[in-house]
Amino acid sequence: MKTVSQHAILLDAGSGSCELASFDVSEVLGPVDFAWRQGAPNVTCVGSGILAGGIVPGSNRLVFAGHSELWGGFYTSALGGAGLLWDGTGISFLAIRGRASRPCAVVLAGQKDGFPSCRLVPVDLDEAFREKDGESGFYSLQRHVFENLWERQGTPRVLAVGPAARSTMFGAVGSSRTTQGEITAVDDWAGRGGFGSRLLQKHNICAIVFGGDFEDEDLTDRAEADGYFQKRFSKKMLVEDLEATTKYRFDPAWKSGGTFGVNYSSLQAIMLSFNYRSVAWPRERRQDLWKRLVCDHYLEQFNVETIDRKQFSHCGEPCPAVCKKMNGPFKKDYEPYHTLGPQLGVFDQRVAERLNRRSDALGFDGIQIGGLISWLMECLADGVISAETLGLPPNVPARPVFDPDGFDAVRDSNHNGSIALSLLELCATPGHPLSRGMRQAARDLGPEAAARAVYLANGPEGWMVPNQYWVPGMLAPMPIMGKYFTDYNRDFRPPRELGARCVERMFQEIITENAGMCRFHRGWSEKLWPELVNGHLCTAIDYPAVHAGLCRAIRAQAAPVFWECRRIFEMLAGYFASLVEEGSADPTLRQWADRFAADAAGAARAYWEELRAGTEEGFARLPGA
């Protein structure tokens, strides 16, 4: 096998010292197994995939990986497009250990001939977060670093945190696409896992600015790339990729596009809303809510403003998916616009834009903070907790409108949005009880509040708001949850079979993440990636063996906990009842529906144990076991 080396900088933030290390692909293949190899929980890693810098669409994601205090275990989180400029640094990976004495930015600059330079520059974080020209928090810090800390030619890119990174464990890492010396409105987020909080709290690193003119042998020959695609699919690369990414660009079947447009068009009666209360409603009520508040308003606004006007962009690499659906400065993705939207009782784009923009400025993971606030909104609406208990200002309405009957999409969304904005600020306040997150707050606020919470637990303190699909796989006891490392098909499967299928999906998703590939291209990448890499690099990497071993290693340190939330029992009971209502005659499905109807807690425990047994069988069946 040909020797192919990848380079890494090992940065000690405490001393500022850097060490350059090299790894053959037989040792380290991508950013996930690089982070796993570092081993120590005090190391945070970021890196690109093995084909970053080339022309393969979707191959330029930047991946954070390491221990997540939020989840209580190993985790990964990625953002799009940044790998293209990262390739110019001359390294594939950066590992950070130690803690700087004051907040610092890492300045990482590649050089055409020679080693990259890496240095720490102190940042006055209070000043950098302060509002300037309408930007604050993450946005103002990103601009400060972009405009003041890069001294080389060329346009760099910045990774930055927001104020939530210093007050909570669910702060994200954001990065806006840059071009021709400017920061664009198209931002992307390594949101899940709390890596923004980890960077700042564990290392005192608030930003990383990077770029450079290092050149290596990237896959830039279109004829070569087309050859791999034509051999497998009988189509050129661009043609195959256009077909695989239809949903994310524009799907004629739904006359919409992107995760927001296609998901809201297709989910209809199975859309979750009002902090998952909808799972207990009859299908007709759920369908009516979707038609009145989403189809005729929330989605209609999006289609008129974004789809009809073709406000499409990309994350930073020339990609035909153009999945970034914009309305001026606002980027519309399904999950943050759902947790900070219908889940907390907001069905109007103007209100959702304000919420999401403020969440991003604070540097929150939108899914995590949206799930937390949705729960608090229901608790306030039901009188389980008071506005005074939470510390809401007296000029903020004390009770949300949390019933779809008679809900006015504009008036009531604005009412709820004003409460949610105040809750956002409270959650970002250092020392506020809500800054500790939903799992701890559920313990503190009592059993009635806890019964309405929805989170997945890992270990004694870890928690994660699940992805926003009403399917059991999104609740499975898997090693990494809150991402798509699980089976999220809605079709019923017996729990043991579903558990095994969740492992199969994790295996495929780990390959994609370790490649620095965007999963929006998985329609072809899961079939072709090993052949593409081995063909271009003249290697013989055993992809199944490498990634099966990685999956088993991650699973060995996982500590999934049985569901602590009664609302999850209700979600499962509603899921089974909805499939029966839709006409399923599967006898096993009907048995589970009956068990949940008779004893939801007992059925949930039995179902969880079967799911867990299925995952064990799935890991045992991976290659090389």
Walk me through the structure.
- The chain is of the alpha+beta class and 625 residues long.
- It has three domains: 5-213, 4-Layer Sandwich (Aldehyde Ferredoxin Oxidoreductase,  A, domain 1); 249-434, Aldehyde Ferredoxin Oxidoreductase Protein, subunit A, domain 2 (Orthogonal Bundle), CATH 1.10.569; 471-625, no CATH class.
- 43% of the residues lie in helices and 15% in strands.
- It is built from 24 helices and 17 strands.
- The strands form five sheets. The protein has a six-stranded mixed sheet with strand order 2-1-6-3-4-5, sandwiched between helices.
- Strand 4 and strand 5 form a beta hairpin.
- The longest helix has 25 residues, at 283-307.
- It is globular and about 65 Å long.
- The two termini are 24 Å apart.
In short:
This protein has 24 helices and 17 strands. The protein is of the alpha+beta class and 625 residues long.
* Beta-strand residue fraction: 15-25%
Distance between the termini: 24 Å
- Any idea what the shape is? globular
Mean pLDDT: 97
**Whole-number tally of structural domains:** 3
Q: Uncertain regions: pLDDT < 50 for 5+ in a row? A: none
Rg over C-alpha atoms, rounded to the nearest angstrom = 23 Å
Q: Which secondary-structure class do the elements indicate?
A: alpha+beta
Q: Report the total helices.
A: 24
Largest sheet: 6 strands, mixed
Number of strands: 17
Could you estimate the helical fraction of the residues in percent? 40-55%
CATH topology (level 3) name of the largest domain: Aldehyde Ferredoxin Oxidoreductase,  A, domain 1
